[in-house]
Amino acid sequence: MGNSIAIHPMEGCDGNLDGSPGDLTFRRYRRFGESGAKLIWFEACAVAEEGRANPRRLWIHRASVSALKRLLAVCRQAHRERYGSLDGLVTVLQLTHSGRYASPKPLVAYPHPVLDRWPTVGPVSAPPRATPPQVTGDEHLEALEDKFAEASAWAREIGFDGVDLKMTHGYLLSELLSARARPGSYGGDLSGRATFAVRTLQKIRQRAGKDFLLADRLGVYDGVPYCTSDGKAEGVPRDFPRPYQFGSGVRAENPLHMDLSEPLRFIGHLRDAGLGLLNVSMGIPYANPHLSRPYEKPNEGVYETPEHPLLGVARHFKAQAVIQEAYPDLAVVGAGYSWLQHFLIHAAAANLMLMLRRIKFVGLGRAALAYPWLAREALEKGEINPLQTCKTLSFCTYLMRSKNHPLGQFPAGCPPFDKDPYGQIVKEARHAARKN
Ligand SMILES: Cc1cc2nc3c(=O)[nH]c(=O)nc-3n(C[C@H](O)[C@H](O)[C@H](O)COP(=O)(O)O)c2cc1C
Ligand code: SF4
């Protein structure tokens, strides 16, 4: 890889109903191609229609392959035009099944005492969901392993350098990580819980070949679900049982604290199955968004951050560093930088320092939506423009959660810094919400 800067997977919810990319998807990846980052991690792409979280999420299947090929070509072409060649550019496609957050039919790995009733943030007094979601059976999971392998073969045909098995953010594969009470082949002890990932990586190897990069976006700390309590703006944890057995990387006696011992062993299983690249994430954005995306201001309907965002950034940095130290030969990508605004580049440089070796890649999430050429300016000029950096005001997340659109989903982007087109889009989303 040509440098140490990555663009994180960032879905724009702007695909077509058939799973192919739309005009705004092409626009985003053209910009990412020009960004200067050498690792471009393409957003969540469902391996089955039932696994989409919204009707505009990308979905890989035989009929969408040619459009996805064009999307990759546009990104690579933009990179070639700007930098003269494709040397050192690596592209990875994130493959997913949205599980509990799949729409219209949620599917879970095991019954969860809190999320089954309150899957998303809201007031503490909100009535619980009446019907618990369906728990997926072993046969379905086995068939899903093959879907991931088939999708990987298509990803290879398209020209991606590798695929990511998305195991984070509360989606189906990440729930398997904590399926301690699940009977059968995919739950129980850690090796049972690793079965899906290990077998799928092996199947991908068989279908996509030895030189295909196997990557994983891993949720190393799920935390507990949050809500707002009466008269308080800050989020508070919803009541949860103890010992808490229902999340990845949580300390059972006090799940408000991270315990990386299991995720570290889990990564060992993935390594043995050929994992080459690991993107470390955390939290369940629907239920505790401050963990995965430390923010200054929440999107509407979400709680104010219950901790100083810098503590959230520090939690990310800590997890990345512990994992990189335990697996020095693994390429670890770190997240959680955007809240630092223009200081992110200093923190990135420190974490990348050879002496410290805390991570191998710095990943940009919201920062890249607001300021796609941040990487280029940092590398070429040695500084970035503080007036252009993401201010973590969560308009992008507001759009991601806005469903009152004729296609069932508004496109997500950065209205403050990418006004044309997102200034108008956010106005329309607000108008539609008021009308609703
Ligand atoms: C609009 C939006 C879309 C996102 N889409 C994805 C996605 O498709 N896959 C994923 O793993 N994470 C997704 N994320 C999470 C980001 O990749 C990243 O982990 C998170 O924003 C924290 O990094 P940051 O502080 O640099 O923004 C998304 C975040 C946002 C705000
Ligand atoms: S809308 Fe733009 S500035 Fe606000 S959090 Fe999202 S990327 Fe950052």
Summarize the model shown.
The chain is α/β, with parallel strands linked by helices and about 425 residues long. It is built from 14 helices and 13 strands.
Pick out its properties.
436 residues; eight-stranded parallel β-barrel; two-stranded parallel ribbon; binds flavin mononucleotide; binds iron/sulfur cluster
Q: How many domains?
A: 1
Secondary structural class: alpha/beta
Bound molecules: flavin mononucleotide, iron/sulfur cluster
What share of residues is helical? 25-40%
Low-confidence stretches: none
Q: DSSP helix count? A: 14
Q: How would you characterize this protein structure?
A:
This protein has 436 residues and is α/β, with parallel strands linked by helices. It has one domain: Aldolase class I (TIM Barrel). 35% of the residues lie in helices and 13% in strands. The chain has 14 helices and 13 strands. It has helices spanning 23-34, 65-83, 138-158, 172-176, 190-193, 195-208, 261-272, 289-292, 309-326, 344-352, 366-370, 374-381, 395-400, 419-435, and strands spanning 5-7, 39-46, 58-59, 90-96, 107-108, 134-135, 162-167, 213-219, 226-228, 235-237, 277-281, 331-334, 361-364. The strands form three sheets. Strands 1-2-4-7-8-11-12-13 form an eight-stranded parallel beta barrel, surrounded by five helices. It has a two-stranded parallel ribbon with strand order 5-6. The chain has a two-stranded antiparallel sheet with strand order 9-10. Helix 2 crosses helix 3 and helix 3 (138-158) packs parallel to helix 6. The termini are far apart. The site of flavin mononucleotide (FMN) has 25 residues, from strand 2, helix 11 and helix 13. Iron/sulfur cluster (SF4) binds at residues 366, 369-370, 390-396, 414-417.
